[in-house]
Amino acid sequence: MKKSCNSMGRYGIWSVVVLWLALFCAAVPGEKAPPELFETLQKRLVADGFDAQRIQQIYQHEEVFFEVRGVTAYFQHNEATLDYDKLTNASYIRDAQAYMQTHADALKRAEEKFGVDPRVITAIILVETKFGKYLGKRSILNTLSTMAALTEARPREYLWEQLPTERRFTRIEYDRKADAKADWAYKELKAFLTYTSLHGIDPPSVVGSYAGALGIAQFMPSNILAYGQDGNGDGRINLFEDADAIFSIAGYLKNYGWKPGITREEAGKVVFHYNHSKYYVNAVLKIVDLLPEIAP
Fold this sequence. Notes:
The protein contains 14 helices and two strands; from the N terminus they run αααααααβαααβαααα. By secondary structure, the chain is mostly helical. The chain has one domain. A two-stranded antiparallel sheet has the order 1-2. The longest helix has 28 residues, at 171-198. It is globular, with a radius of gyration of 19 Å. Residues 1-31 have low confidence and may be disordered.
């Protein structure tokens, strides 16, 4: 996700920059925010059909808190730039070749089912999480709940007060972005709670990027519901398992137009749906060019 959070693309290039940095950051202890900041959010979820007892239990969990540190990344100016070119270095290409050999069976089966080149799946997993080495350490529940709560005045004001004054957006920009992110996050939060319920997953236990993307493929929760695949046949969709991640990426790409014999230009347009950045697309295609095809 993150990985691909998405459309996976979820983010613009600036957001991708911050996501890349955030994947390398350790989780921080819960900020001492007022506990009632999630009260209205809980009522909203119950009104939308979620079980009241389950919602109460989830938000009473000691690991659930208002995620200030990660969410502030959305509302600060950042001058960082990405160096995608390093992912075409020989060491990364060797890692990619080793990954293709280790997971050759899943990659072949995904290609047979969806018609997606194993090399592009491998390239995406390299760019997203370096083959699962950098999955993010932020609580998905805390991140999405915090952003979703920004529809309310008190949580929005509380977050504003935590932003470093020298780097934060103007208040007008902050409010505009908060409006957009709150609506988006609430949709993703509902998808996340639905996904974890369907597969018997404890919501507070799931970690990912600062943007709410999770797993080896860095899918956003709504994309798991729409395109997630059970690649290993165990009856569950777990994006932290390679086969499920491989099949899910293949299903996603097929949905957006991937087909056998696709041209390079067409391939670029499909990958763009995974991440709306031309730099990202170029990096993925360069990696593909450096990888050998899997023998039939």
